[in-house]
Amino acid sequence: MKYISFYGNLYHCPYGRRLTTCHVYPITHSSFEEKFYWFEGLTPAEKESVVKHHEQCARKRLKKINH
What we know:
Blueprint (H helix, E strand, L loop, with lengths): L6 H5 L20 H9 L3 H22 L2
């Protein structure tokens, strides 16, 4: 349940198109279920890396929207 707030990002990028640097980008066209199982199959360190990347990306993209 630690990543419950992240799962929505597997379904759809909150900023529209996924960037090619997004960890989920290579599986963008997979079903939500497939993305969910992909994420669940990652090690804890890999999950943290994916979430950290998302948070950094979201901050950058939000900053661009607000300027």
